[in-house]
Amino acid sequence: MNMKPFRLPDTLARIATALPQTPPAFAFCLALNAMRDRLLTDELRAALEGKNLRLQVKDAGLTLNFTFRRGRFLPSSGATDPDLTIAATAYDFGCLASRSEDSDTLFFARRLVMQGDTDLGLLVKNTLDAADLPAFTMADVAPHRVLQRLATLVLPGRP
Question: Is residue 105 part of a domain?
């Protein structure tokens, strides 16, 4: 990312924390499921089965609770302690997605935090590092692009 590091305003986090977290968790699970076959090795599928996971975007006040059951990512209530929590700021997650920073650099700089099952965390990290995915850009989240992708998921066979 060729951007100066930023942090979202605290006001946004206070507002987002008060909002229901299930809708964004559902959207995140849809995205993960769309990439599931390209991302998950058999080893990772087995390790994830039945696990409760949490992704926290600290400066956005966003906490995504989800699980992996019967080969699919599903939103969860977050009522139980997660087996693995991964936390960072929106900027740092953007750096990971754009591949402008690697997870080890962010981890050792304490900008990416993993808590819980460290073996599972390392397996997830190594799988993502090895995945042959295109680098994410901000153009990927332009509203018209997001709507086009959703349309192809909901209405297969339509451009």
Answer: yes
